[in-house]
Amino acid sequence: MTQDEQEIRQLIELWLSATQAGDVDAVLSLMSDDAMFLSAGQQPMIGRDAFARGLNKVLSENVIESTSEIAEIVVCGDLAYCRTRLTVTITSKHGQLPILRNGDTLSILRKQADGKWRLTRDANMLASAA
Asked: Which NCBIfam families match (predicted)?
């Protein structure tokens, strides 16, 4: 495994743990300013600010726990893509039943001028696991 692949794996683990901890700033530090998120049936979410608003809203009422199985990482210069199988459990802070979603994701990462990998595009095909 190359150093770049290890760094991308670490980014994914940090993303999951920071999300579970409710550390929105840590999650935002892992993405480019112009990050774009694609989900079926939704308009693209563009930029850190839009992502922060959405994540803060969800975390105000819920806790998010996720696991990710990395199926593939391909690095080509300062671009990489990663394909994963993601499982997300959203648990209400108010006693409502948890929501379970799972599915595949495809993420594009770019190595920034500071030498760190950051997520720049993400498409997820999560669906209800009910």
From this structure: SgcJ/EcaC family oxidoreductase
Half-sphere exposure of 57 (CA within 13 A, CB side): 6
CB-based contacts of 24-33 (< 8 A; 24+ apart in sequence): 24/52, 24/55, 24/56, 24/59, 27/51, 27/55, 28/52, 30/118, 30/119, 31/118, 31/119, 31/120, 32/110, 32/112, 32/118, 32/119, 32/120
- Residues 20 and 92: their CA atoms lie apart, in Å, by 13
pTM above 0.85, yes or no: yes
The model's pLDDT over 64-78, given as tens digits with 9 standing for 90+, comes to 999 999 999 999 999
Partner residues linked to 102 by β-bridges = 87, 127
